[in-house]
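Handout, page 2. Input:
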Amino acid sequence: MKYAPRKVYIKENGGYEELSYMDFCRRREADQTYLDKLFIPIQGCLLEVVREQYTDFYRDKERWRYLQKLDTKNSLLSLDGFTDSEGNPLDFIADEAADIAETVVNTVMVDRLKAALSLLSDSEQVLIRAIFFEELSEREVGLRLGITQSVVNKRKARILIKLRKIIEN
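Output:
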């Protein structure tokens, strides 16, 4: 056991008898029937229960652990954590009614960008792909291409200016 409970509650004569943990340990050493009793932890205390309650408690506890593990694995967030200092829920969920004009503009811009990228030289495409699609740092791209980070930065700036001009025309 990781900790010593504050109290232990044992069923006796149709009710519960409260014992200190030290008294419980003494009784358990003196009376072997205490080894067969089942307890669940509740608020820092141990409570004697019947087998069905014991099984249900630990089944629920294991299910909760499993769900927590899934949440962590899948990076899920609970909405319970998004409250202000007074416990009121925050209004942070975006309006899902899509702005059609904005969607059309974004689609057109993506199409223009794809067309503009195909007009770049092979070396320019390699650099842009490494920085923006593979998400490598300028330093990592420089190591890959055998050039310094500052050269990568200057080339990137020139290529972005070139792309902007192609897209705007």
